Structure formats: structure tokens, C-alpha cells
Amino acid sequence: MRAESNVTPGPIVAAGKTAGVPLIAHIIYRLDMGGLENGLVNLINRIPTERYRHAIICLTSYSEFYQRIQRSDVCLAESAGYGSRGCSRDDPSDHRPDARN
User: Fold this and answer.
1) pLDDT in tens, 33-77
2) Considering the entire predicted model, what is its pTM?
3) The total number of structural domains that make up the chain
4) Is 48 helix (H, G, I), strand (E, B) or coil?
5) Which residue, among 101, 95, 55, 58, has the nearest Cα to 80 in the 3D structure?
6) Pairing mode, strands 83-85 and 75-78
7) Who contacts 40 (Cβ-Cβ below 8 Å, separation ≥6)?
8) Is residue 59 included in any domain, yes or no?
């Protein structure tokens, strides 16, 4: 049975809820089945939302594997220009990572 994902189009920063919460940008080749990807999804799902926000930047693309992400505030983007989910395009400062992984 496949888990439902909470990753949906929308802003990274919800007004008043995540202001000042550091953003970690995870840069990977592709988000698909694999050991590194599984570890990344587990890490994102287990880190408390009040501690860090997350953005996953895929150098190529992503598969349905993203549906394992349980948090609704994760930005998922494809740098090859294929698309994105959950990323705000309103304020570029929302996307300046405090850490890169």
C-alpha cells in the first residue's frame, strides 16, 4: 500500500508559522528508489518542523517516490526545468538555504 504524500503546490513559508526557521537545501541527482533517497526521506520526515524547513533540488527529475514525504512544507524542484511541487515563487528570499546537503 502506497503512503499518501502531503507534498502539494504551495508556499514554503506559511505566514507566521515558519518565519526564522532555517531552510536546508538537499541537492540530489534524482529522487527515486534508492538507499540515499530513502535516507533523505526518513531524515526529512523525522526532523521536527519547528527546527528546519527542507527543499529538495533534483538535478534531473523525481518519481512517485516523493509521495513518501509526510511533511507538507517541503519544496521539491527539478533543476532541469521539468517542474516543482510545494515551492513558492513569490519571494526569492524564501529559497535562500541556510544549509546545503
Assistant:
1) 999 999 999 999 999 999 999 999 999 988 999 999 999 889 998
2) 0.67
3) 1
4) coil
5) 58
6) antiparallel
7) 26, 28, 31, 56
8) yes
